[in-house]
Amino acid sequence: MIPRSPGGEITPEGLMAVGRIAREFNLYTKITGSQRPGDVWRTERRSAGNLASAD
C-alpha cells in the first residue's frame, strides 16, 4: 500500500488511519521521500536528551 497525500502532508489522524487499514488487511506500507515525517525525530532526540540529563 502506498498512501497518497497532497503535498506530502498528512494529519496525525490520517497517519493513524493508514496504520489501521494496513493492520486490518495485513499490508506492507511505505511512506516515501516527500512524505517522510522528519521533524518528529528531532523532537524525540530532544526528549531523550532531556531525560538523560535529568539523572
Tally the helices: what do you get? Answer: 2
Give the CA-based shape. globular
Provide the residue-averaged pLDDT: 73
**Poorly predicted ranges:** none
Strand content: under 5%
* Structural classification: mainly alpha
**Counted beta strands:** 0
Region (Disordered): 34-55
EC number: 1.7.1.4
Keywords: Heme, Iron, Iron-sulfur, Metal-binding, Oxidoreductase
InterPro entries: NasD-like, Nit/Sulf_reduc_fer-like_dom_sf
Description of the molecule:
With 55 residues, the protein is an all-alpha fold. The protein has one domain (6-53). It is 51% helix and 0% strand. It is built from two helices and no strands. It has helices at 12-24, 39-53. The longest helix is centred in the C-terminal third of the chain and has 15 residues, at 39-53. It is globular, with a radius of gyration of 15 Å. It starts with 11 loop residues before the first helix and ends with a helix. Keywords: Heme, Iron, Iron-sulfur, Metal-binding, Oxidoreductase. It comes from Escherichia coli. Residues 34-55 are annotated as: Disordered.
Task: Offer a quick outline of the entry.
Its EC number is 1.7.1.4. This protein is mainly α and 55 residues long. The chain has two helices and no strands.
Chart the SSEs and their pairings:
Elements: H1 12-24, H2 39-53
Which key features would you list for this structure?
single chain, 55 residues, mainly alpha, iron-sulfur, heme, Nit/Sulf_reduc_fer-like_dom_sf
